[in-house]
Design a protein that fits this description.
Blueprint: E1 22-27, E2 30-35, E3 44-47, H1 48-60
């Protein structure tokens, strides 16, 4: 899948005012993460199992 085909989204907790945020897109069995301020910048690609663990740990604080 090319970068142009990815559907990026932000957290519903994001203020939506152009502030600092990460964007996430799912691609097959992985999750892509990028800085919303630099959409053409580097993309972190994480396996879906690793992403699930990260989200669970982040939710715990």
């Amino acid at each position: 899948m090319s970068p142009d085909e990815r559907v990026w989204f932000k957290s519903s907790y994001s203020a939506g005012n152009g502030g600092d945020c990460v964007e996430v897109a799912t691609v097959h069995a992985s999750v892509c993460v990028r800085d919303s301020k630099q959409p053409d910048g580097p993309i972190l690609n994480v396996g879906s199992a690793g992403w699930t663990r990260f989200v669970r740990m982040a939710a715990r604080g």
